[in-house]
Amino acid sequence: MAVANRKPTNVTIASALLAEAKSYNVNLSRAAEAGIADAVAAEKAKLWKRENAEALASSNAYAEKNGLPLAKFRQF
Description:
Layout: H1 15-23, H2 28-51, H3 53-66
């Protein structure tokens, strides 16, 4: 992930985890950034599912009642 602007931030990390990360030369800023990016992506996915639950349920109900619209073209 390329991020042009970075901002210094204070975080609290379990001391044992911090010591282990340092022993493996883990770049804490990059690791934290990657973890935060993953958490944000997971929350966005949850929100999308919540916001689109009605449409997904409707689509699933249609497929259960009528089958898949292009099922005759499936090769598997």
